[in-house]
Amino acid sequence: MALSRGELQVLWSTAATLSVTNGTTSTSDAMTLTTAGFNGHLQLQANNDGTPASGDTIDFFIAYTVGDPGGSGADVFDSTLHAKYLGTANTFAEDPAIFSVPLPVAAKAFKILAKNNATANEITVSAAVYETRG
Amino acid sequence: MAYSRGEVQVTWETNQNSYQLPGEEVRTSNAMTFTTGAVGGELEIQANNTTTPAAGDYVDFRILYTCGDPGGAGADVYDTPGHGQILGRCDTFVEDSAIQTVKIPVAAKGFKIYVESGSSANDIVVSAALYELRA
Asked: Rounded distance, CA A18 to CA A113, Å?
């Protein structure tokens, strides 16, 4: 079996980045994992739109779907407070702040949640998955 | 499916296999790419003190992955050092050479190794190699 690799750009209202307003949480578009993907890595990035201040952090979460647990006919994603925590990008410590995590890729699809903890500044977020495909 | 195994040498500066890290300094390796067929990996990191080790003569190793270009700017973007994954500390005052191996995920596109010296005076030579299981 010849393997291949490729990038999956996470989109936010069809754009590669999104400026998240301070004190709010934004959710990416639903991203479908590649059929043949069996190994994955997710990279997350936060760029402060202003001068970083203490507390200017983004908490990232992932909300998976494996289809429709309740049988209602539409994909159901993990709820906001039960989504899996991925990590915090601290733009006061580093701007931009970028980190990556190993990503299980057996689910059907996912969304990324970005919670801006800043009191004043907007922070631009982005994310990408790199998959190994069989 | 036949598996194979192979080594990827981490290089520094002008394709050197090691780098002499001055005390209190930091350095990042060259960008390394995972083999397309890699499904598992172990990374070995090494530190050799160039003189008589003193207390505090250690090197902290981190790995900075890239998954390509999250922001869509067109160039590979690497994890920033303060947010990079800690691999471990090689303490040459305890052992010289200090060598350890850690399991790493290999699904990312590539990586760099970031080293930070805790030594106040001594140069420490660092090196690293990845061993991959390939499908």
From this structure: 11
Phi and psi torsions of B82, nearest 5°: -70, -15
Q: Is the pTM of this model over 0.90?
A: yes
Name every chain A residue with its beta carbon within 8 A of the beta carbon of B62: none
List, in sequence order, the alpha helices (H) in chain A.
none
Alpha carbon of A17: minimum distance to chain B alpha carbons (Å): 6
Contacting residues of A for B135, CB less than 8 Å apart: 1, 3, 134
Give the dihedral of Cα atoms B83, B7, B101, A103; nearest 10 deg.
40
- Can you tell me the distance from the alpha carbon of B29 to that of B19, in angstroms, rounded to the nearest whole number? 9
ipTM of the complex as predicted: 0.92
CA B135 to chain A, closest CA, distance in angstroms equals 7
